[in-house]
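ugh ok fine here u go
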Amino acid sequence: MLFGLIPAVQLLRDSQSAAMARSSRRWFQDVFVSAEVGGAFVLAMLTGLLLRSLWNVEQVRLGFEPHHLTTAYFTKPKNDPTFEERLQAALANAPGLESAALAYPAPFTTGGLTSGFEIRNRDRLPGEPEWHGEAYFVTPEYLHTLRSPLLRGRNLTEADGADAPTVCLIDRNLADRFFANRGPIGQQIFMYKGWAQIVGVVENIRADGLEEAARPVVYYPLVQVPFFPQAAALVRSAAPAGGLLREAIRRTNAGVPLFDVQTMDERIGESLGIRRVLAVLLFAFGGIALLLAAIGIYGVIAQVAAEQTREVGVRMALGARPGQILGLFMRQGLRAGGLGLVAGLAVTVYGQRWVGTLLYEVRALDFTTIGALSGISLVLLAAVWLPSRRASRIDPQTALRHE
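structure:
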């Protein structure tokens, strides 16, 4: 409505001469085209940056193999202390399952349980912040099911039962940070259920999100820290195993509810959902904006050429070459489009402080800027060149007879 009313108001100004009206209209057209080109550039830049950021996030090393892994949560039954042991056995004997483990929590759900911790015979330095890490509670089959390597020491075993001394595994991140000058195996850490002896070091596993740096992680035997009312089952199989999980739960204890059944790929996809939605939306809007900018520039130059047909005829009759006429109209179109590119680049530079929060290992201004600038410049050049070329081929006699 706004852009329809402006030319209507201009036409009502009877006091203006036709030349002044054309000049005013052309000024408005140039501003509008510049805004279209600038907006298209900004959207193209954002799309390119988000796509690159999404690609970088998806290439992050997880520390485990997420494919062919199905996960589900269940509520631990009361008055059934051997349920988890029987469920583990049922999953181990289920047809079609390569391996199975129980854990709390599962990767890419709520994240590990964050807590402060202490290390025996190691004091914090003056001014050093309190040590914090994440805890996961797992069965011995956890690493094998995730296909995550054990780097040093031993894995958890069935011998690490409820009545056995408390033991734990730590990840490489914690080992490198706190045990760089001494071996971590045999050292003791205090996080849950008193002091626990470190028996092994595992690879860093990104289980809380792809974009966040992995925090120090401690893995306890699930049976030694039975404080939580829920747990998760993780099974590896060639096909999604939701049905097998439900059947194993039903045969172990039919009254136990199973919920949040998803493959690990689905959980990781959910963590990337907002990025993918933004990339698709910006790709669509950027394409539409670029198309509108090209149509706008083409229409402006075509209209200017039509209004100046007699002038073109006079120029050509006086000896102007087609190349000079082509350059005349191209300069008019490129001036408006170039101003839009400059404005779009300025907006992008100024707005990178907000865009940066959406990016992962991508600078707001790099070769993506050059690519977007080059692509839009080519579209701009084509939109200006087509009507300008048509104007340069006007027959002088036809142009002089033009009303």
